[in-house]
Sequence to fold (234 residues):
Amino acid sequence: MSNAKFDGYAAQYDSWFINNENVFLSELKLLKSALDLTDGGRMLSIGCGSGLFEEQLRTQYGINVTDGVEPSEDMATIAKRRGMSVQIATAETAQLEENSYDVIYFNGSSSYIADLKLAYGNVLTALKPGGSLILLDVPKESAYGLLYLLAAARGSYDGLEDVAPADSYPIELARSAYWHTTPEKSAVLTDELGLHDLQYRQTLSTAPIYSNDFVEEPREGFDRGGYVAIIARK
Ligand SMILES: C[S@@+](CC[C@H](N)C(=O)[O-])C[C@H]1O[C@@H](n2cnc3c(N)ncnc32)[C@H](O)[C@@H]1O
Fold:
């Protein structure tokens, strides 16, 4: 069951972002720039984790996302403390009111979902016609994706110290992921679920070992980012 993946890692997950503050701020800017491409309105975060991004969206940009879906009780407990209202469920099983959200986003959670069509299809019922679905993730084909695939195959970052960030993403979380490419996710959205008008924004475009050296402004496209946003219309 996918909730087991992040149970027990909640504190470690947050402290990883605190130790990699510039990476966090670059990703936060990407989320903000993706939300700017939507018409705003009522928003839902799928796999909201500890609500760290939502807290900073509120304090730094005045954007309020209070509704979340999250399978890990450990993560959800922290998100609730941060003011979110969280349904404990996966994207595949969440019970959501039809046509009730203007924007639904998956920030980092698609990487823990095997069947994307099932997960996106379930939450799409809750998206209003004309609303936006946003997927933000580490693409499988990016330098970060390849690093995590390599470390997972080796079982650790041993031997990768001179190419991996000093405080690397927890190996257990890299190992339990299902990495997807950006074209793979795009094809699910357009060909299988009928979404359209896809746009792309990206950040973390340096080699991973340099990505915490500065805060990066998001740019268009998906060909070099270690973190990519796909923005699609229903
Ligand atoms: C990389 S974390 C991202 C958390 C948060 N959105 C953030 O960016 O800090 C991935 C999250 O997806 C959640 N997750 C795992 N499987 C899921 C699923 N099937 N449906 C929804 N969320 C899932 C995990 O519990 C975890 O909180």
